[in-house]
């Protein structure tokens, strides 16, 4: 088993006034040659957007982009004609493929929006762009894994499709409860991000916004030392 630990305080940080962003991996002005990616996972940004502010229209190409709101709601518009709000409990996926543009805006006059944005490198370039979002029942992630994103050719349950052999799971562990992750194959690794709470993983104690990458392993146990919310990204390592 191999591991890498990324403590919350070691992340890159950018304060743009309207946006405060923590970067797990190199992004924009934060460049760290030791933090370029974890397998196919290229970006994990923890963003806080101020009221009545947001990301103006901008382009993407050949990237799988996943947004997970943790607090508040974002209004989404894109060049495919989608105009929707994404709220807590929902997950949004965009396969940028040949190219698209989009904007994200916090419509609230008083409340911040906090969301995670993940970029996963695609299995194939030049695919037709795709957008989907879905609300997931929180009861289905209590003390068990809920698959929210999966490969487009091998969907699990209500999982949203992406153009990569990668999976995203969510789970809420009660205190002293545990789950076991079983790898999809020899070339896969788990990147485990702690949204809140305290966990024990691979003989390490991890707390809010810490993360651990684990690979070269068939399975790994996660024990909640207290009530914890976790996001797990399982990706090909090469």
The class by helix and strand makeup works out as mainly beta
Strand % is: over 45%
* Annotation field: number of helices: 0
SSE string, helices as H and strands as E: EEEEEEEEEEEEEEEEEEEEEE
First-last Cα distance: 16 Å
- The total domain count is 1
Radius of gyration, in angstroms, nearest whole number: 17 Å
Number of strands: 22
Instruction: Provide the spatial order of strands within the biggest beta sheet.
Output: 1-20-17-22-15-13-14
What would the principal axes of the Cα set say about the shape? globular
What is the percent of helical residues? under 10%
**Mind describing the biggest β-sheet?**
7 strands, mixed
CATH class: Mainly Beta
CATH superfamily: Jelly Rolls
Written description of the protein model:
The chain has 238 residues and is mainly beta. It has a single domain, classed as Sandwich (Jelly Rolls). The protein has no helices and 22 strands. The chain has a seven-stranded mixed sheet with strand order 1-20-17-22-15-13-14, with no helix packed on it. Strand 7 and strand 8 form a beta hairpin. It is globular and about 45 Å long.
Layout of helices and strands, plus pairs?
Elements: E1 2-6, E2 12-15, E3 19-23, E4 41-49, E5 54-60, E6 64-71, E7 73-78, E8 83-87, E9 90-95, E10 100-105, E11 113-120, E12 130-135, E13 146-151, E14 160-162, E15 167-173, E16 178-182, E17 188-196, E18 199-201, E19 204-206, E20 211-215, E21 219-224, E22 228-236
Parallel strand pairs: 13-14
Antiparallel strand pairs: 1-20, 2-3, 3-4, 4-11, 5-10, 6-9, 6-11, 7-8, 7-10, 9-12, 13-15, 15-22, 16-21, 17-20, 17-22, 18-19, 18-21
